[in-house]
Specification:
Blueprint: E1 9-15, E2 27-28, H1 30-49, E3 54-63, E4 67-68, E5 72-82, E6 86-99, E7 108-125
Antiparallel strand pairs: 1-5, 2-4, 3-7, 5-6, 6-7
Keywords: Hydrolase
Protein name: 3-aminobutyryl-CoA ammonia-lyase
InterPro entries: HOTDOG_ACOT (IPR033120), HotDog_dom_sf (IPR029069), Thioestr_dom (IPR006683)
Length: 129
Amino acid sequence: MSKATIGLTVKHRRYVPYSHAHYAGNLVDGAYVLALFGDVATEVCIQADGDEGLFASYSDVQFLQPLRAGDVVEVTATISRVGNRSRDLDFSAYVVCRGRPDQSASAAEVLAEPLEITRARGTVVVPVA
């Protein structure tokens, strides 16, 4: 029996290693965050429907601020619509800690306020129960 309900939310946090920097200034590509959205969507499907489900599409993606190597990023997926086999999800990504290479090679800080870097809407599908 499906437990898919509007408002079901899952969060993941991950440290972004310097090996993932692709651009000057230790910037990380937007695809990194989209992969994290896929991971958190998978857990939403497991919790809601007991199946990993399949990611069908994004209807909107907004890259608001850069993600940098040395950051700790928190991604969230929340069910916003439940259909027979589909679930619409709202995604957000926030930097909660930021590396400070300007201070030393291993310096970092917890941000006083999380910094929203990406938001998106997407649809997943799960097998019929």
